[in-house]
Design a protein that fits this description.
588 residues; alpha/beta; Gyrase A, domain 2; Isoleucyl-tRNA Synthetase, Domain 1; 4-stranded parallel β-sheet; 20 helices; globular
Length: 588
């Protein structure tokens, strides 16, 4: 189904052509003066230079050709040469009826769906999720859902940090505490215990303790590095203990991501490409891409057009150890071999922009990816507290993600139960649903690269540009429909009628923008576009609602049209919050 704005532009282009001007001048945009018109065309201004003619004369010529238009109810030429446009109510009605009939409201599906891998989350095992993990998880999940909604084949990969020195530190600290464990006995040949020798709580305390010791005690650090080497070399007991560490951590990570309604198709980590690295290094050497520089193996990625210094991409350190670059390149190599993606999207802190520039250039130069494979880094800004600094607990520590979720759940519960009686179980469940909308919408309504202030009072408000306000709007529509049903009423979802008021037409026009918005949100990997759209749509609906007596309307045909409009509004709002990663309760 063609986008609404494209259809309007085609009509205007025909008018330019009929008036003797270049049709490409007829591009239509949303009006920047909604008090004067709904849409506008500035083509006459550009045409004045081409045709050596006053722009208002061109605009008048074009307006004359629109008198019998089936799309425009009004085309007005205004000085110095703008065309102010209003569309016919019947045209809007027909378009919405078409959206209602079509799957996904007429969003055009790709002829050749892309294979996309979204790499997001990126937690380290043996460490709890903290607020720094919130943004990549939420934004990545939404980008994945938007791409799927747009008709593409998408795989989400958590990409765990599970193979470096942190693993050696944890193993070393466990050995310090429990040296008698079978994992450290080189002569042990039996089966290792199925149950881990630690709980998740103990594991989360072990890593920071080990990390602190390694900074203060050089011998301890050496021991941890040796443990890392043994693990990566395949020492049986170390591998078995590492497996326990990963299993316990992943079970806890899944539990916490589930609270955010974030789901991964793949739970792979750096360890999964350990055996890929030697072959990749050999290939890079053999093909002449990699060379030794100051003892390290590197690949030059600088280009002639660079205006800033781009250092070489290091593949192996001087001691032969691998780096993040190594595992990321090996992961790209493995993904190309196993999944043949057309596009790979990475979500991390925006301060890693240069790092990913190096890695992507290296992957292209060394032909680890096909020439047409797109590599995209979505750099993410920080979530800050009211002081403008990275969000912390009251005592200055890094807040655990589950504690943040719990805090917002409690705030939503308090607001839901304030001044009214609600059953405890229902209030708790509703609070969790609304709190999730507050967290996700509060984050996603900002551009990914921008830092933002995490304001609990603002994000949990039922008014303004917030998740709870969007949910409240959807629940309001559900409440109206339930009331009509209780009165014995029914409706035909296809019985949308011409707008009978300005607020009704405004609501209908907002709905028509769905396809263009969703296409842009996918193309730009920009969930904030969805948030901006549904905020405007919710505002348009609430204005219409306050000006219209829907339930008590006696004219059956008029009421049926309004109900159909309500159903379409609800369905589009729910489709949008679905790709943002939350949903609406039946009541609030």
């Amino acid at each position: 189904m063609k986008k609404f704005l494209d259809l309007i532009s085609e009509e205007m282009q025909s008018a330019f052509g009929a008036a003797g001007y270049d049709e490409t001048l007829g591009k239509v945009t949303l009006s920047n003066r909604p008090d004067l018109c709904e849409y506008q065309c500035n083509g006459a201004m550009a045409g004045a230079k081409i045709y050596k003619k006053a722009p208002v004369m061109i605009a008048n010529d074009v307006a004359e050709k629109c008198k019998d238009s089936e799309i425009f109810s009004s085309v007005e030429a205004v000085a110095p040469g703008f065309l102010n446009l209003k569309v016919r109510e019947s045209f809007v009605e027909d378009y919405l009826a078409g959206m209602r009939r079509e799957e996904k409201f007429g969003l055009e599906m790709p002829e050749n769906p892309a294979k996309i891998i979204v790499d997001y989350g990126g937690p380290n095992v043996a460490k709890p999720l903290h607020v720094g993990h919130l943004r990549p998880a939420i934004i990545g999940e939404s980008i994945k859902r938007i791409a799927r909604y747009a008709g593409h084949d998408v795989i989400g990969d958590v990409h765990l940090g599970d193979w470096g020195l942190p693993m050696g530190l944890v193993i070393t600290e466990i050995q310090e505490r429990k040296p008698g464990l079978a994992y450290f006995d080189e002569n042990f040949a039996g089966e290792y215990p199925k149950q881990p020798p630690f709980t998740i709580s103990e594991l989360e305390e072990i890593y920071p303790t080990a990390s602190k010791k390694s900074k203060e005690d050089e011998a301890y650090k050496e021991k941890a590095m040796e443990a890392t080497f043994k693990l990566q070399s395949g020492v049986r007991g170390y591998r078995a203990l590492w497996k326990h560490i990963v299993d316990v951590s992943v079970a806890d990570l899944k539990r916490n991501y589930e609270k955010l309604d974030v789901d991964f198709d793949l739970w792979k980590g750096e360890a999964d490409v350990h055996d890929v690295i030697p072959g990749m290094v050999e290939y890079l050497k053999k093909e002449g891409y990699a060379y030794i520089s100051e003892g390290a193996l590197v690949v030059d990625v600088k280009e002639e057009t660079d205006t800033k210094e781009i250092p070489p991409c290091m593949i192996l350190k001087s001691d032969g150890a691998s780096l993040y670059n190594t595992t990321d390149l090996a992961t790209i190599m493995e993904r190309m071999r196993e999944y043949h993606p057309d596009r790979m999207i990475y979500l991390t802190d925006k301060r890693q922009n240069l790092y990913f520039e190096q890695v992507f250039r290296c992957a292209r130069k060394t032909k680890l990816v096909e020439p047409q494979t797109e590599l995209l880094h979505v750099g993410i800004g920080t979530m800050n507290g009211s002081d403008g600094k990275p969000f912390k607990t009251r005592d200055g520590g890094v807040m655990r993600l589950e504690n943040l979720i719990k805090e917002i759940n409690e705030e939503m519960y308090r607001k839901i139960t304030d001044n009214r009686q609600v059953e405890e179980e229902e209030a708790r469940k509703t609070a969790e649903v609304v709190a999730l909308s507050a967290i996700k919408y509060g984050d996603l309504s900002n551009q990914a690269a921008k830092d933002y202030i995490f304001d609990i009072d603002k994000f949990t408000s039922f008014e303004g540009d917030t998740g709870p306000y969007i949910l409240y709007t959807i629940v309001r529509i559900k409440s109206i429909l339930n009331k009509i049903k209780e009165q014995g009423g029914s409706w035909d979802e296809s019985s949308i009628r011409e707008a009978g008021s300005e607020s009704e037409k405004s609501l209908m026009l907002e709905i028509t923008g769905f396809n263009a918005m969703m296409e842009t949100a996918y193309g730009e990997s920009a969930p904030h576009k969805v948030c901006a759209y549904i905020y405007n749509l919710a505002n348009a609906f609430n204005r219409f609602y306050h000006e219209t007596k829907i339930v008590t309307e006696e004219n059956e045909e008029k009421r049926a049209g309004w109900i159909a409009l309500l159903v379409l509004t609800r369905d589009i709002l729910e489709a949008c919050i679905g790709v943002l990663g939350f949903f609406a309760p039946e009541r609030m």
